[in-house]
Specification:
Layout (H helix, E strand, L loop, with lengths): L13 H8 L2 E4 L15 H19 L2 E4 L9 H10 L7 E3 L6 H8 L4 E4 L2 H9 L4 E3 L4 H10 L11 H13 L1 H32 L4
Parallel strand pairs: 1-2, 1-4, 2-3, 4-5
Helix pairs in contact: 2-3, 2-7
């Protein structure tokens, strides 16, 4: 696989890249507050685990890695993404999405991916909406709750190491068609349930009596 030309953005036409490379991977990183995700690992260890996992996907799945930052700012997702790439043996096969994009643009990008690995809830929701098979690394109960609603497993976060994560990624890749089918079955009911939020709020406001 060839990396994009210097100075180009990985947000170029992903369909063309898919046709050329066959497989596109997408990895999303957690912000600087990594403690809740891996309490027994420091940031350097955690970056190393993610770098090994990214190398595993390149070598096992013949993948092109695209890191999609969901939060910018100092010491946030872009910085962590570059820190992971710096530890990769196959760094030339990884890129970080540059520039600022609306949520709709990121959602549109997601549909061109073959597989996703992420921690941030909205990243995982976007993958689910686009029916992109994904592996979640839950760092908070809201992510675990989302996986529970989808009846999807999660990798063992306790004593997480390279072997455990890569084994989970390998199984998930092999069963990606099954994961996609689950998303097709489970996501639409969740979307309908989410639509009820506004109605519940409106009903509550109508029920309040002015003092």
């Amino acid at each position: 696989m060839r990396p994009p030309p210097p100075g180009s953005s990985p947000a170029i036409d992903r369909r063309a890249e898919d046709q050329e490379h066959g497989v596109t991977q997408c990895t999303n990183l957690l912000q600087s507050g990594l403690g809740p995700a891996a309490p027994d690992l420091n940031i350097e260890q955690y970056h190393a685990i993610l770098a090994h996992a990214a190398d595993f996907m390149v070598e096992r799945f013949d993948a092109q890695i695209l890191f999609v930052p969901m939060e910018g700012g100092d010491n946030k997702d872009p910085q962590h993404s570059h820190a992971v790439i710096s530890k990769m043996a196959n760094a030339q096969r990884a890129n970080v999405l540059k520039g600022e994009y609306t949520s709709g643009e990121v959602l549109g990008l997601m549909k061109n991916l073959s597989f996703a690995v992420g921690m941030r809830l909205h990243f995982l929701i976007f993958a689910g909406i686009q029916k992109v098979p994904f592996v979640a690394l839950p760092y908070a109960t809201k992510v675990s709750g989302f996986l529970s609603d989808l009846e999807m497993p999660m990798p063992p976060m306790a004593a997480l190491n390279v072997g455990k994560l890569c084994a989970f990624l390998d199984r998930s890749w092999d069963f990606r068609d099954r994961i996609k089918k689950r998303l097709e079955d489970k996501v639409p009911p969740l979307q309908e349930r989410a639509k009820k939020t506004n109605q519940i709020l409106c009903d509550l406001l109508r029920s309040l009596k002015p003092e």
